[in-house]
């Protein structure tokens, strides 16, 4: 439909000219047949004929031009199609750019000064919260560090081995009991004032078989028992003691020193609850007078808390002990509390029995407490619970 009316007009014009030309030739033919021809009319016809020929020539020229125009119209249409495609792509690109511009406008609003200030404020609050949290953690860490430092100082203090304290709490309470043919050990309990008098009484614990061997039997229970007391100044005080109570099955005996003055050292007695916490691998000192020597400490551990011999319950320890340790004390290695009284030691063989030093048996102090209650001496003072808390802290 691109300008098809031009050729149609041209065809109609040519057709009309052809008809007119045919008429003209018909007229010429008639004129020639006439006997007489008017030269003027003939000239007019010729002029008309030339005009028609000119018009035909112009029409042919116009036809050529029109044909060229039609070919150019096809090329133009093709180019217009290409341009139309390019314009469509450009329109799409423009729409995409418009979308991006709108997006950037939105982002510009979001990151504008006000939005930026809001985000900075949120960030600042977050940083402050994090700082407060870190400060709390730092304070907590500082407190823990201070607590740990205190614990380390206490531990180092313990490692420094206060020899004066260790002597007073481990060696000082130990006494030697000696007869004609036997030697053993005992443990002094803290001296306590006698109500209404300017006097002190001091009890001691030992193994019953030590007293039995010294007195040569229960019938001599009234015979004073020789006791050697050791002082912090390396002086030896000879004393005697009176047997108050004993239990052969438990292998325990309670004696009272025959003196009214206080002793410099007495064993630290634990609470009953503390004794219930004793476990295997707990470190201990075994202190006694083996072979009649002055008090000797040896280090080891609780090897067994459920050891039974002949129906009697004992603890077994790995701290080396020997003959003469009987009746001596077993002390907590950290708190120096008295945990039990040494009773007997394992031997191997019958003809010439060999002592096994690291397999000693101990009468635990909780059993001794129960026995003291049963024989009317349950009033012997034990440690307060606050001391137990300190002991637990020292153990940690």
Folded structure, characterized:
The chain is α+β, with helices and mostly antiparallel strands. Helix content is 48%, strand content 24%. The chain has helices spanning 5-33, 39-110, 113-159, 163-171, 208-215, 272-275, 365-374, 385-395, and strands at 174-178, 183-188, 192-193, 200-201, 203-206, 225-230, 236-247, 252-257, 283-288, 296-309, 312-317, 329-332, 338-348, 354-364. A 6-stranded antiparallel beta barrel has the order 1-2-5-8-7-6. Strands 9-10-11-14-13-12 form a 6-stranded antiparallel beta barrel. β13 (338-348) and β14 (354-364) form a beta hairpin. α1 runs antiparallel to α2 (39-110). It starts with a helix and ends with a helix.
